[in-house]
Amino acid sequence: MAEELCVQLVPLFQKLDLEKQQQVEQLVHHQHTKMHELIITPDSQNQLVIIAHGSVKMYSLDSNGNEKVVRALSSGDFVGETWLLGINNQNYFIEAVEDSDICIINQADFLALLKNSPEITATLLKEQAERITSLRKQTQLLSIVNISTRITTYLSQLQQSQGKASIELPFALKDVASYLGTTPETLTRKLKLLEKQGKIEYHLRKIKIKDKL
């Protein structure tokens, strides 16, 4: 069986024929990262980062140096397309949540690829629209004043996206709390209350939804 190409994990490249995928794969630099290792900082050169295996988190720092988690990425996800197109990364860090295999494409190589591949450009625009939708969902969550409602709405969204009653949080509890604009202590307390009410069962990152939230 042929070895899976890193770029085949990415929706951006999946609709390309094998020959074109192999051309893209030649641009890839492979990197193995350890848990908590920084992959991207605001000082890094502009790159497209593909998560081949593992998981990472994307976050910014507030004026007090506290993390604000923006996004969780796992196998097949990617980030950095806007950086490649000339928008400098001024705020974001990407850190491995666990030991991960990363694929990186540099800006100059990627721009040359886009000039010769209009189908990739079209797919890139579609992915960017979906990313904007994801950010809009987070903004809508943060606009919910009641923290209990914010948490149950988030769990319902995860259940819908994962398509099953037993869901898995995309990252550690403290990072989920940051994403939801609350503290780990408050999130833990609210989850325990939902469990006491018989609506969920949870252990670490795994949550089974037993009743309508």
Architecture overview:
This protein is an alpha+beta fold and 213 residues long. It folds into 2 domains: 6-118, Jelly Rolls, CATH 2.60.120.10; 144-209, Arc Repressor Mutant, subunit A. Helix content is 41%, strand content 25%. The protein is built from 8 helices and 11 strands. It has helices at 11-14, 18-25, 81-84, 107-116, 118-142, 147-162, 173-179, 184-196; strands at 29-33, 38-40, 47-53, 55-61, 67-74, 78-79, 93-96, 100-106, 166-168, 200-203, 206-209. The strands form 3 sheets. Strands 1-8-3-6 form a 4-stranded antiparallel β-sheet. It has a 4-stranded antiparallel β-sheet with strand order 2-7-4-5. A 3-stranded antiparallel β-sheet has the order 9-11-10. It is globular. The N and C termini lie far apart (45 Å). The relative contact order is 0.14. The model has no long low-confidence stretch (mean pLDDT 87). Residues 38-131 form the Cyclic nucleotide-binding domain. One of its GO terms (cellular component) is cytosol. InterPro entries: cNMP-bd_dom, cNMP-bd_dom_sf, Env_Response_Regulators, HTH_CRP, RmlC-like_jellyroll, WH_DNA-bd_sf. Residues 145-213 form the HTH crp-type domain. Keywords: DNA-binding, Transcription, Transcription regulation.
Write the layout of secondary structure elements.
Layout: H1 11-14, H2 18-25, E1 29-33, E2 38-40, E3 47-53, E4 55-61, E5 67-74, E6 78-79, H3 81-84, E7 93-96, E8 100-106, H4 107-116, H5 118-142, H6 147-162, E9 166-168, H7 173-179, H8 184-196, E10 200-203, E11 206-209
Antiparallel strand pairs: 1-8, 2-7, 3-6, 3-8, 4-5, 4-7, 9-11, 10-11
